[in-house]
Amino acid sequence: MTPSNLRIVSLLSSATEIACELGLERNLVGISHECDYPASIRSLPVVSEIKINPTLSSASIDSSVREMVEKGLSIYRVKTDLLEELKPDVILTQHQCEVCAVSPKDLEDSVRSLTKKNTVVCSLSAFALDDLCADFRKVGAVTGRDKEAEDLVTRFWIRLNQVNAKAGTHLKSRPKVLALEWLDPPIIAGSWIPELITLAGADPLLVDGPKPFKKVSWEELYDQKPDKILIFPCGWSIERTLEEMKLPQVREKLEAWPAFKSSPVIVCDGNQYFNRPGPRIADSLEILGAAIWPEKFPTKRYGLTFVTNPASS
Which domains does the chain show, CATH number per domain? Predict the structure, then answer.
């Protein structure tokens, strides 16, 4: 099988972006329900679906996910018939997070049904920035695009280093940044996010390196005194996050937090950028630079809007 006629199904939005960056967009024959970038892939067959209602509140989504995971159930469903019809040579998925996308476990029965091909399941597992680059190389290796993957790694780190140099690497005073990855319950962003905050010339609060995301109580949150508050719930757009922040049960908790009233609050796109471990994590660092250092990174270039106490707006 050569790269020119390789058939790829991606069950992970970031993997779809990686494949496209490696020049494999024309090889994609199926995508997940969350794959939406680049826009040109949106007409491809969708081979997965979510079992919970994504329009629920953050508290309800959290409860539903925990209940299903505790029962050993997946929150995703693979469309087996469609997968068999598409006859992929490579399936891109992940094994880091049961909430992020279809896992290899979900694919076991589906892949067995593909008896006419020796389909390769390429499972990605980004946790730190170096892992993202390892994933670039892994996709390159299974698709015959090793050189393109190395070029992508180089471009990726050049962009990260450019932001780091512009933000300042040896600052006497570094702003303290608190990054919320979920609102109800509050969850502090981990994995690559603290690394991005550090590269942007700031210090992350509560999770200070490539460590697991941390669920905290509202009381723990109230004890924090950040210079900036970033909010980008996983899988949510800015508009969706602002709607959630205005719900009475969330708004009440946020407005009881002294820092929420006094610190700049920046709502970012957690779906397209920060929580999607693909090439656009470099864009995320640029956005982060603009959020922390608006004087160094002109905000209009990144389409950022700084919101003061959005829950009461």
Answer: 3-153 (3.40.50.1980), 173-312 (3.40.50.1980)
pLDDT digits 0-9 by tens, 125-183 = 899 999 999 999 999 999 999 999 999 999 999 999 999 999 987 778 899 999 999 99
Residue 111's pLDDT is 65
**Residue 100 binned pLDDT confidence (cut-offs 50, 70, 90):** very low
Annotate the chain with DSSP letters as a single string: --GGG--EEE-SHHHHHHHHHTT-GGGEEEB-TT---SGGGTTSPB-EEESS-TTS-HHHHHHHHHHHHHTT--SEEE-HHHHHHH--SEEEEESS-TTTS--HHHHHHHHHT-TTS--EEEEE---SHHHHHHHHHHHHHHHT-HHHHHHHHHHHHHHHHHHHHHH-SS-SS--EEEEEEETTTTEE--TTHHHHHHHTT-EESS--SS---EE--HHHHHT---SEEEE--TT--HHHHHHHHTSHHHHHHHHT-HHHHHS-EEE--IIIIIT--STTHHHHHHHHHHHH-TTTS-HHHHT---BSSGGG-
Whether the full predicted model's pTM is greater than 0.90, yes or no, is no
